[in-house]
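hiii so um. not sure if this is the right channel but i have a protein structure encoded as tokens and i wanna go backwards to a sequence. like what aa goes where. can anyone help
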């Protein structure tokens, strides 16, 4: 596995101030390469009387060197090494750090998530489920947290497991899972979006959850409260069109409330690995969702014409609105609206929100 020739330019663009996954993708589509996008950034920012802190070549090269020292591989969006199902998602991280067996990303995967303060019964069920899915040749994806996550990783370690962590590839969280993380790196795969050395913060965990959901054909919640991170992962999976599954529990147990709520909302009730295989429409262990997918077509390199800009600006307000709604009401091509929004975002006029929504900043 080798780095793309423009790895430094890609990493500089990714690490530049205000460049998120959606903006990165649109900039590369618009200008043709990361290097060309970097060259255009100062002029785009000046239009909005704004200065962007562009990542330096030295900083990007230092990050690449640190990753190599740690034994981590870099997986760039748009390359053959990047996880194919994750690449289909709108907010796919432009780069991932991978420590371990990256070949696991070519196999069908299922996410198992749940409560940190899991019950003994929940932990036992998660272990059995992960082991059985491993026997069916599924890779088990989870978040290295205490409780259900750890149980799933441990049970699937011999057959294939992927741990997605919130901090840098060299930062174990929780700290008492350092040994488990090392075992997964040796026998499975650890994935991180943040730079090496980054300590996980609260805002990093929802971003980690979107990766867990994006890597898998389906997400199973074993136990979880209605407002837990596990439920966030399940809802992201549903938004991606992936299968959402939940294990029912007693109404008297607060840890079962999230799962029971998901089932009431339409999630598939799971009592065994056989139920998971049926839900994913499997045939001989192969999921219906294709493992290898092509990258979305690049948007045409359009210019944000004044008339188009004015039309979009007239529809924007401090209240977030779906981009699709802007396309419908402006009657402009979707690519043209995307170009206008990209310029407005780089100028600091527009802020992106979750769920493909934008608002005036």
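sure thing!! here u go:
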């Amino acid at each position: 596995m080798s780095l793309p020739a423009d790895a430094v330019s890609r990493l500089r663009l990714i690490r530049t101030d205000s460049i998120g996954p959606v903006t990165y993708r649109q900039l590369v589509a618009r200008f043709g390469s990361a290097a060309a996008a970097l060259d255009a950034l100062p002029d785009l920012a000046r239009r909005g009387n704004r200065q962007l802190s562009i990542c330096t070549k030295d900083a990007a090269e230092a990050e690449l060197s640190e990753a190599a020292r740690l034994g981590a591989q870099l997986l760039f969006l748009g390359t053959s090494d990047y996880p194919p199902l994750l690449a289909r998602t709108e907010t796919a991280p432009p780069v991932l750090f991978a420590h371990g067996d990256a070949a696991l990303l070519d196999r069908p995967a299922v996410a198992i998530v749940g409560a940190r303060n899991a019950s003994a019964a929940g932990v036992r069920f998660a272990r059995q489920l992960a082991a059985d899915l491993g026997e069916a040749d599924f890779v088990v994806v989870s978040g290295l947290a205490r409780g259900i996550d750890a149980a799933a990783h441990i049970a699937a370690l011999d057959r294939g497991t992927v741990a997605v962590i919130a901090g840098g590839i060299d930062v174990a969280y929780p700290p008492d899972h350092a040994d488990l993380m090392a075992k997964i790196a040796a026998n499975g795969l650890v994935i991180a979006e943040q730079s090496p050395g980054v300590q996980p913060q609260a805002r990093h965990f929802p971003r980690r959850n979107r990766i867990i959901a994006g890597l898998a054909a389906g997400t199973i919640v074993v136990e979880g409260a209605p407002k837990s991170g596990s439920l966030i992962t399940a809802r992201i999976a549903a938004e991606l069109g992936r299968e959402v599954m939940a294990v029912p529990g007693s109404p008297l147990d607060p840890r079962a409330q999230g799962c029971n709520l998901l089932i009431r909302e339409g999630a598939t009730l799971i009592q065994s690995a056989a139920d998971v295989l049926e839900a994913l429409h499997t045939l001989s262990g192969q999921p219906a969702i294709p493992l290898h997918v092509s990258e979305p077509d690049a948007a045409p390199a359009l210019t944000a014409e004044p008339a188009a800009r004015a039309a979009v600006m007239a529809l924007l307000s401090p209240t977030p609105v779906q981009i699709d709604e802007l396309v419908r009401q402006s009657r402009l091509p979707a690519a043209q609206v995307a170009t206008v929004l990209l310029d407005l975002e780089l100028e600091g006029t527009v802020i992106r929100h979750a769920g493909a929504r934008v608002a005036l900043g």
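oh and The chain has 15 helices and twelve strands.
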